[in-house]
Specification:
The chain is mainly alpha-helical and 270 residues long. It is built from ten helices and no strands. Helix 8 packs across helix 10. The protein is globular. The N and C termini lie far apart (44 Å). It comes from Candidatus Borkfalkia faecipullorum. Keywords: Cell inner membrane, Cell membrane, Hydrolase, Membrane, Methyltransferase, Multifunctional enzyme, Protease, Transferase, Transmembrane, Transmembrane helix.
Length: 270
Amino acid sequence: MEQFYYITTCVLFAVLGLCIGSFLNVLIYRLPRGMNLAKPASHCTVCGHKIAWYDNIPLLSYLILRGKCRSCGARISPRYFLVELSNAALWISCCLAVYRDVTSIPVAAVYALALSVLLTMAVTDMENLFLPDSLQIALFVIALAGVFTDLSQWQDKLWGLLLGGGFFLFIYCLSFVLFQKEGLGFGDVKLMASAGLLLGWKGVVVATVLAVAVALADIVIRKLFLRRGETLPCAETGEEFAFAPYLAFGTAAALFCGTALFDGYLALFL
């Protein structure tokens, strides 16, 4: 019977992940533009044609339509497909990693919802260099709900909030002192405060290290493959660097194995 519950829960998480992934695409497109999330109904951004329900089925509709609008044939960004697929994978991963019995479902749900918000933040920041406050609030509320799934860890989570938010606030203020401008968006500060509340202090340390390491590696790799005379977009425009995708990646990785990585690293020296 327990195996039945396990399989059923995994299937449920997969379906929810796909459906919520479809909604994440709505958030990614509409929030930066200040649009209503409910109206107008889903439509082609080129011809304005209302998308029928059978053309709005996660993953399947994109594949059946070959990534094109049924009405005008305009290309649909592969981002829609990738976000739905990624979110489903994240939800299934949470179920596989956390599920022990039915009592562990709330923890898996908190992790899955947090990862959905982080995915939305990452893509929104990549496309718009913007982190909506509504997503920040959602992540904080989800992280706070996570505290109540295991009250024995509340002090660890509180220290995580203070460490994550405090460290990035220090970097934010230091950039003003040294360079008289933002070296880090304040949205990143709020993101990591919530990440600390979600992960605890060990997890947020791992998340920060991973985020910085991946960001630096990405910059180096992209510079190596730049054509002569080209520069990275942030260097050309002077705009802030989209750091949220790296923070989201670090937080997601730390959510699954942050404490183990932290303790394993310390064990090398103790």
